[in-house]
Amino acid sequence: MTEITAPKSPVTTAEFADGIREQLKYGQGVTPEQATPADVYVASSLVVRHYLQDAWFKTQQDMVNGKTKAVGYLSAEFLIGKQLRNALLNAGMLDQFDEAVESLGFDPQTVVDAEYEPALGNGGLGRLAACYVDSLASLGVPAFGYGIQYRYGIFRQEFDSEGRQVEKPEYWLANEEPWGHVDYNRSQKVSFGGTVVEENGRKVWKPAWSVRAVPVDYMVPGYASGRVDTLRLWSARSYDEFDLLTFNKSEYLDAVKPKVEAENISKILYPEDSTPQGKRLRLEQQYFFVAASIQDVIRVFYPGQSNPDLTTLPDKITFQLNDTHPVIGIPELMRVLIDEYGYDWATAWDITTKTFNYTCHTLLPEALEVWPADLIGELLPRHLEIINEINDHFLEELKGKTRDKEKIERMRIVTNEENPKVRMAYLATAGGSHVNGVAELHSQLLKDVTLRDFSDLYPDKFTNVTNGVTPRRFIRLANPRLSNLITEGLGTDKWLSDLEMLKGLEPLAKDDEFVKKFAAVKQANKEDFAAYAKREYGFELDPNTMFNSMIKRLHEYKRQSLKILALIAKYADIKSGKVSVDDVLPRTVIFGAKSAPGYYLAKMTIQLINNVARVVNNDPDIKGKLHVYYPWNYNVRLAQHLIPATDLDEQISQAGKEASGTGNMKFALNGALTVGTLDGANVEIRERVGAENFFLFGMTVDEVDALYAQGYHPAVYYERDPRLKAAIDMVADGTFSNGDRNTYAPLVADWLTKDWFMTLADFTAYCDIQGEIEALYRDPLEWNRKALLNVANSGYFSSDRAIQDYLDKIWHTGPLA
Ligand code: 73E
Predict the structure, then answer these.
(1) What is the pLDDT of residue 243?
(2) How many domains does the chain have?
(3) How many CB atoms lie within 10 A of CB 161?
(4) Is 134 a member of any domain?
(5) Which end of the chain is more exposed for a tag (fewer CB within 10 A), N or C?
(6) Alpha-carbon span 147 to 124, nearest angstrom
(7) Ligand 1 pocket residue status of 658, Cβ below 6 Å
């Protein structure tokens, strides 16, 4: 007997079908006969929203009226992915939807496919925010996700005929979007620029211009919790259609300029992951969404009160700053408290520091945001004053804690130089209660290196919350076959809200019959993916080869170069006859990655991968043993298809550079084995799944540091390993550029003379471990046993556990009563 705990549908199939008909008629204005799959998609989404409405109201009412502190997750990115199936799953209506749609003569998959993916994030950080709101709702915790409804999400990636990345605008709102409810009546005013004057001994900010922040609300239904939280994404609108003054002077085109400029604020997501550009518009975006969110929270929690007691704010809500992007919220809350509600500095600071917490997501120094004070002063003159004052108070406080003057100098929030800068990570650390990293190793390095002075003087502020991913989207929706097998193995489907239960699968790894079923699931998923890749990209994947995936942003530290060089080395070995093609394990390597548009070496790496694919896939000497595919425009949808079909996952960043990684968790949970370095969450994944079930290679953080210290000379490694030499020579000699030796010259020069992330130093270890991997893969039962043990022991990496950690260690709140 299988125990079923999945949520019960609030609606019958017949009611669902009636709902669709009604929405088609009054919403879309079409008959079922006229309707397209896109119409049925919109209508179905509205039916789902209809049935979630009461739970949404109740969650909000209980949040405002009850005593449970809410969570405000402030994030510049929410990479939510497609909504319909996720909402159906969480609300328990999957079957009713399928049957209702079929009864109207439509194919459910085609209807679901009509949804356009909202791509409002760059990568892991944005996807994490989306997983976290899912888990907050599923745990029944009252919460808001606050962010920006960009009109253009992350660019759509195409490849040109040379294999180079081309960025195309991603205008995802071109079609009707039924999930976001635009709430014009609850808009907020956000102001910029101008000057600060003194009036009656008080500072008064006289801004130069304002925009209207219009909330667009997305329901976030919890899985089987009966709760629906809110993702509130702000859209920038102009107040004045026309500047009347200018218009009256009949300068018609100039008159609409302010409108265009105001609306630019939420127009586009910056496509840089981990390399912020310090652009004025980005600061405008950051202030825009946090200022609107703070006003919104006061509106929601102190309704109709002109003189609210804001000393209770930290009991009503706790704000989590998702990286430094929303940190301008700290001086903004100070400003609101002091200038608008008349609190004194000390009281305002007490409220502010109790309300904010900060998650750091990086170790790369270039990713820690630093803003020129001048720029802040221009856009937010009052905030600059407040930041300077925070800095002064902070330096005073430090004097009471240490006599080390250099340390105090190093800890300045505002640097002491001709053109001072504001260090947002320091502001966040000083202005909040807790600072956390996103994996054990990362949190340790934050304390030891990046924020060392702070952790010396404020050790209690620092903690770790290892990232997690939602099992609803990334197991249940992405991998229904595996989900059914897990439920069969455990005798219950309860694991979907208590993922540590996967541990119960561990004994089944000894049961060959179960392992074979598990292997059959993977095989079927590979066949599905091959069909999908054929349909979407025209690729011909052979599901009887090992599927080896590397999907993540293209970045030097992630070392796609290492993967492609090892692959080229294998190709070179076959071409030179060192290795007989008949002995090669058939393997399909799949890359998915976007590069920041201005990132020269990353873009060249993309071009190289595409051209290696072209050459290798078409070389008859290879006899189809090696295939390389690079599906363009990697996104959440592609991840959901590819992860369940992957045998081997690559997490090969230089140790000490990947803060956590979350793809690694999704792969382990879907029964892929990982080849990886001791970096980010790999460390914890390996600890849990067992060293014998993880392919570890490469230098450790300490070895990397020692090598930097001693002086790193990549050419030494090139000379030492003939496989590496052959691979780099092949890139240099034009094999992958139709004989042109210049195409990849900058990349080759970088490898041989700089190689900042030590790809060459780890190359030999990487190739050696691939030998072990191939030996194991030739034994399918053993391979799948290990893969199953990965699933059984990865339950810890649920975002439900991560959110529970935030609740216990940082937020000190919990579910609504
Ligand atoms: O290691 C990942 C981590 O798993 C890290 O690189 C990523 O965040 C993930 C979730 O914790 C990340 N993204 C950014 N910084 N760290 C970032 C920075 C600026 C803009 C956009 C994204």
Answers:
(1) 53
(2) 2
(3) 5
(4) no
(5) N
(6) 16
(7) yes
